[in-house]
Amino acid sequence: MPDNTRRARDELFWKTFADRYSNEPGPINLENGYFGRMSRTVVEEYQRNIELINRSNSVHVRQRFEQGESLEIRAQLAELIGVRAQAIALTRNATDSLQSLIRNYNRLQPGDQVLICDLEYDTVKGAMRWLARYRGVEVIEIDHQHPASFDSLLASYREAFARYPRLKLMALTHVTHRTGLVMPVQAIAAAAREHGIDVILDGAHALGQMEFNLQELGIAFAGYNLHKWIGAPLTLGFMYIAPERLADIDPDMGEIHFPLNDIRARTPYSTPNIPALLTLPQVFEEHLAMGGSAAKGARLNYLRNEWVRAARNLPGIEVMTPDDPRLYCGITSLRFTRHEDQQVMVDRLLNEYNLFTLVRSGAASGPCIRITPGLTTTAGDIALLIKALDQLR
């Protein structure tokens, strides 16, 4: 058994890890997909940086942060994800990154088509529809059949590529926020290239719980969060553009603070959360010290599989995410099939079992309840979830 797989089951190890976090009394949080948590040492470092910048103000920022620290942090991030520093620009979050990529993509002409699916983030859908209003393109939206499989997902896109020959650009979500479905990005991107279609990848939920290589995936444009599974303060994310494709994304609204050949010109220029950025070296150090995405992903998948394995055998419970290891991560959704209103069941999970979960709607397959364990979730928490599902179904 690989070390990460064996360690994923080691409750004593993860209890030691969980002790690094402060807990607020209240419900058991099974909605850890919204944003992640900072360890106490990261919080302390963040507070020190807030006090430092508050004391030194623009003297430190002009003399040290802008001239050196920001570049060092950018280089550390690039090394973490295995790309060149020139390929990334720090942003506030994945959404900002994706909106910038979509609105500044310059290879569209009136009459071209762009593609989205039912599982995309609503803001991404909105940005693609904005292109229709202001660039004169047509938005094509497809729905994925349920239950999904690797082959069915790839076939959905191949069919769309063949049916809509004017497609030039598509959004693709690595880990869908509605159900937790992991898209076969590499296969879909390869099929898109065969038809001359560019992909903008939403990686908001992928970074930190999945290992991936952007070049192997065949992705030229992507947006990511640092405040979910990496453990950074809120307001941090980044944009990725393959250096050879930089010219296909215009500077953001004529941005002039950086040269045309600098990816940072593709983001709005503003005063960032400097204390949060200065905290990133501590965040990266802790992420790597515990084994990085491989260790975190193994633990989250173990917790996911524990409740899914039990739920598959419960009449009245439908798990919305397949068990193909290529298509799931720690985030997985379910539905009470004998209860029409899933929000009522979320309320009952909270009020009767002290379990905090979330309804996600918008998928063609219907509303579902998203279950997202975190790095401080215990096997006991999962056992309580299984008990609740059995008694409420």
Question: If you had to describe this structure to a student in words, what would you say it looks like?
Answer:
With 393 residues, the protein is an alpha/beta fold. 43% of the residues lie in helices and 14% in strands. Strand 12 (358-360) and strand 13 (368-371) form a beta hairpin. The chain has 13 helices and 13 strands. It is globular and about 60 Å long. The strands form three sheets. The chain has a seven-stranded mixed beta sheet, sandwiched between helices. A four-stranded antiparallel beta sheet has the order 9-10-13-12, covered by helices on one side. It has a two-stranded parallel ribbon with strand order 1-11. Helix 3 runs antiparallel to helix 10 and helix 12 (342-353) crosses helix 13.
